[in-house]
Amino acid sequence: GSADLVAALELQPTEGLSCIAIAVFEAAFVLPLLARGSSTADLKAKRIHVHLENHPSSRIPISELKASRIGKLATVRGTVIRLTAVRPLVESMTFCCVKCGSPCPALYIDDGRIGPPDKCSGSLEDGCRSRSFIPIRESAKFIDWRRIRIQECIPSFLPPSGTLLSTSSNPSFAASGPDAFESSSKEWLQSLGGGGPPAAAAATAAV
């Protein structure tokens, strides 16, 4: 019910936003077909990105983005002071074991860098422990991403700032100064503290 959704948004925002995305898909694509008596068998899955606006109960200062907020919904408001160019980010890729030919998922390192698995998880009779792999490049899945640095709007002193990772839905949306920016709850990266010159207007980010 709606009460469960409110709790999920606060404590498990990834799952809560996914539930909203499913509801949007049903309302926008499935129900119109059913209303016309059409079949949904040929309906292709679509990725729905949900961004919350005007959600005051989750708004906190940038200085309060600490380890206790990991995994919870938080909204911060600040000024975009720096952003990188949009680049491709590898979400996933499969490697092939040279010894047994079994597919093995890539090992994620950080910042879009991936590497081969530590050892093969194949199912040979004696157990395949090979450490030699060949990347299956056509299996790679990419999303667009960029780093966005925001600064809290507090005129009386040098405010704290932080870095966000904008991915998937619209990484080219944000710009330094007046444009607004939104991200999902799991995209807060690092670098609390620091500073920089303030820009002309504020931007909002759901973190």
From TrEMBL:
Cellular component terms per the entry's GO annotation: MCM complex; nucleus
Ranges of Low complexity composition bias in the record: 198-207
MF terms (GO), sorted A to Z: ATP binding; single-stranded DNA binding; single-stranded DNA helicase activity
Protein name stated in the entry: MCM OB domain-containing protein
Domain MCM OB: 63-153
Region of interest: Disordered: 186-207
InterPro entries: MCM (IPR031327), MCM_OB (IPR033762), NA-bd_OB-fold (IPR012340)
A Pfam family annotated for this UniProt entry: MCM_OB
